[in-house]
Amino acid sequence: MSMHVSKQLAHAYFDAINNTRLDELVQLFAEDAELHFPLMDPIVGRAAIRQFYEGVLQFYPKRFDDARRFFFSQDGDVAVEIHFEGVTATGKEVVFDAVDLFTIRGGRIYKLQIFYDSAKVMEMIGTLPQR
Q1: Among 6, 8, 117, 128, which is most buried by a count of CB atoms within 10 Å?
Q2: How many domains, the chain?
Q3: CA distances from 100 to 15, 103, 117 (A)
Q4: For the segment 65-111, what is each residue's pLDDT rounded down to a tens digit?
Q5: Considering only CA atoms, which of 1, 2, 17, 23 is closest in space to residue 100?
Q6: SS3 label, residue 83
Q7: Are 43 and 34 in contact (CB under 8 A)?
């Protein structure tokens, strides 16, 4: 997999997320793709991944994933440093940094692992006591 294809795929992912284009988003994933999200069991398959993102995008009606730095492996996999800013459906402001790791096979996202400080985010949305 060329770095060019991987870069296009990662940029297309963030463009679809930031512009709430779910149909485009799920087509970037392999049919049997895996999504690993903090505090959850792996989400497997396009239909389940779409359902997950529908919920997340509704929860954050205002949001922006600022993909700041991209790192590429020789195999075409991508790590992306992200700065997220959003507002939940209940009006809570949420700001955090994250890293997404994309495993790319056959021109599609085969596995996506998302890493961020989930305790900090839970505190911001009100599911953990404030420090």
Answers
A1: 6
A2: 1
A3: 15, 10, 13
A4: 999 999 999 888 999 999 999 999 999 999 999 999 999 999 999 99
A5: 17
A6: strand
A7: yes
> What is the bridge-based pairing of β-strands 93-105 and 29-36?
unpaired
The residue written with tokens 């911001």 in the block is 124
Whole-structure pTM over 0.90, yes or no?
A: yes
Q: CA 27 to CA 25: how far, in whole Å?
A: 5
* Domain boundaries, position 100: 3-125
Residue 43 pLDDT > 60:
yes
Beta strands per DSSP E along 1-131: 29-36, 43-44, 62-72, 78-87, 93-105, 108-116
The structure tokens 């009100």 sit at 126
Q: What is the length of the chain?
A: 131
User: Which two tokens mark 96?
Assistant: 């955090």
Look at residue 130 and tell me if it is in a domain.
Answer: no
**Alpha helices (H) along 37-88:** 46-59
